[in-house]
Structure formats: structure tokens, C-alpha cells
């Protein structure tokens, strides 16, 4: 699914209203109209593209960056509680904070710590490289030493 705007590249997309009966039928087939919140560009995306149909996605913004939630802190409506009792997994969208339940597996668990771990490993790899030595022709003033 293409969730970024083809015009401006923003990921701030929302589901657009269907304009005709043909768009309603296409929505039932998995082709959704989206609209960018920044530039108001409208485009259609397919739920069948790139194997996105295999994994759980947010019903509000269609993203797949999901975490889980606990019933201890959130009391779901009747329908979601029913789905949880018959074996659905509780998911929470990291972008729009929508809590829902689904039977499809999560593509990959999203956590804010993954970003910091990736940044830390990149910095660790950068620090393992030897620092650049000034060349013999460089003056000490040019390298910052006096």
C-alpha cells in the first residue's frame, strides 16, 4: 500500500470520502481512496500491493507500525472484547493511537526503542573507525591545535 503522498511525500494521509458507487465497489475490492492532509492531493492505493493483505493494519490510517495494548488499562467496546475472547490479538497503531483487534499477524512489532537501538549501533560502528589523522602538510592551526 502506498501511504505516502505521491505529490509531496508526506505520510499524513487519511481515507477520503467515496465520490461514486464505483469507488464504493472498489473499496470493497481493496482499492481505497486516500487524501494528503498537507497538500490535499487525492490518490488510490491497493490493499493487495506488496503483500500488505497478509498482515494486520490500522483500520483508521492503514499503517502497519503496530504495538499491543492490555485490557488492564483499556476497556474495549463489546465487539472488540468479543473478538479478543475468540482469539484476536489486540493491536494499537503508533501513528494515530487507534486500538483495535485483529486475527492477522503483525508485520513487525513497532517500538520507539528500535529507532534508538539502530542509531546507537550506527554511532558505535562510526566510533570504531579510527579517527582521521592530520596530514603532515597540515598546519596545527588548521586542525584546531595551537
**Largest sheet, order of strands side by side?**
6-5-4-7
By secondary-structure content and strand pairing, the structural class works out as: alpha+beta
Q: State the assembly state of the protein chains.
A: single chain
Terminal residue distance: 57 Å
The number of domains is 2
Helix fraction by DSSP (H/I, runs of at least 4): 10-25%
Which strand-content bin applies to the residues? Answer: 15-25%
Mean pLDDT: 77
Query: What overall form do the CA principal axes indicate?
Result: globular
Number of strands: 7
Radius of gyration: 23 Å
Q: How many distinct helices?
A: 3
- The SSE string, one letter per element, is EHEEEHEEEH
Unreliable spans: 142-146
Largest sheet: 4 strands, mixed
Amino acid at each position: 500500500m502506498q501511504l505516502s503522498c505521491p505529490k509531496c511525500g508526506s505520510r499524513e494521509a487519511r481515507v477520503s470520502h467515496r465520490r461514486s458507487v464505483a469507488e464504493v465497489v472498489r473499496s470493497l475490492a481493496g482499492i481505497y481512496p486516500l487524501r494528503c492532509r498537507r497538500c490535499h492531493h487525492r490518490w488510490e492505493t491497493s490493499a493487495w500491493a506488496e503483500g500488505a493483505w497478509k498482515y494486520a493494519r490500522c483500520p483508521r490510517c492503514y499503517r502497519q507500525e503496530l504495538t499491543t495494548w492490555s485490557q488492564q488499562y483499556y476497556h474495549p467496546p463489546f465487539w472488540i472484547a468479543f473478538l479478543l475472547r475468540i482469539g484476536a490479538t489486540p493491536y494499537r497503531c503508533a501513528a494515530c493511537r487507534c486500538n483495535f483487534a485483529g486475527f492477522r499477524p503483525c508485520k513487525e512489532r513497532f517500538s520507539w526503542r528500535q529507532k534508538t537501538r539502530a542509531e546507537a549501533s550506527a554511532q558505535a560502528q562510526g566510533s570504531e573507525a579510527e579517527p582521521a589523522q592530520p596530514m603532515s602538510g597540515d598546519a596545527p592551526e588548521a586542525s584546531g591545535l595551537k
